[in-house]
Design brief:
By secondary structure, the chain is α/β, with parallel strands linked by helices. The protein contains 11 helices and 16 strands. The chain has 2 domains: 266 residues, Zn peptidases (Aminopeptidase), CATH 3.40.630; 113 residues, Alpha-Beta Plaits (2-Layer Sandwich). Helix 3 crosses helix 11, helix 6 runs antiparallel to helix 8 and helix 9 crosses helix 11. The relative contact order is 0.20. It comes from Aquamicrobium defluvii. Its cofactor is Mn(2+). Belongs to the peptidase M20 family. One of its GO terms (molecular function) is metal ion binding.
Length: 394
Amino acid sequence: MSQASNQFARIQDFEDRAGELIETRRYLHAHPELSFEEHETAAYVAERLERWGYEVTRNVGGLGVVGRLKQGEGGRSIAIRADMDALPIREATGLPYASTAHGKMHACGHDGHTAMLLGAAEYLARTRHFNGTVNLVFQPAEEAGRISGAQAMIADGLFERFPCDAIFGLHNHPGAPAGTFLMRAGPLMAAADTATITITGRGGHASRPHLTVDPIVVAANMVMTLQTVVARNVNPTETAVVTVGTIHGGTASNVIPESAEIAVSIRSFSADVRDLLEGRVRDISTSIAAAHGATVSIDYERGYPVVVNSQEETDFATAVVRELVGEDKVGVCPMIPGSEDFAYFLEHKPGCFLRLGNGENSAILHSSKYDFNDDSLTTGAAMWARLAERFLSA
């Protein structure tokens, strides 16, 4: 590591505050709040930022908090985002700091994301080894699924009110060693869409099927044919998923019902494939229903878009994490079929979404036994501080 790189934040600079980071993270873990209900979490974040000298704006896009800190005369600005919301899951970890809110849990690590950015915020305010403007974006409702916190903050003028040259975000990654980073330029996480397909036939007695139009048979044909979309319509060099997650119809074995419904999860990594999948799902559902004499209605909802990391910002962030943790602790992230509303920010600004290891034995995300790995807190906080310093050192 060069002498120049030692001017910037290091993990050891945060070791004497590791206890505070853990205390913050576990407090947030014990007090989870669901999407667009993060009143106490937002207040907790805002009060600390104000205490450290940030210009704080509350209620951005609902319950979003933005902390702005300017140092020197530099004209560059950076935005760093952490998400704050929890999930409607009943915790089963048995930890002493487990959720105190019944049926609510930080099962995705947003408590850790928030704690790490707060740790970096305190360091940056205390040391001020940068020249420009830092915008720390604490976002509500990443888990909302639709009309998410990112969309709400953007609609409330986030980038007009808090201009930035680039935006960065992070998610923990179960299965990767704590304190390691996974990086990828270009498409990283999938667009996630949902189709709810309602089939209307003609009900009747199970003993007289010739007098009916059986929506169960139609649904079964749709389920099987939809499995050919990826196999026979998507270019093999592309990645896509079409999964029928639910099928509902009928109330008794001797009754052919009037209607049936299937729900389909559709995931893709490019706009062209996303459009192709929607077209094929609609065409297949409509034609199969018509072939059986049934009718169909399709509620097709587009969810979060593809997370696309820009090359320059990814290269920059990769250089920063290599300086911080060493070459051997930085790897290439595989494409992830999960979705993330950070994608909306990247539609407006160049940036990079990183993955930080949560331990090889970590429970999976959204599990009732998941817990953020406290061993990653100092690494994550140091990374954010160093990234801001490096970005604003030019």
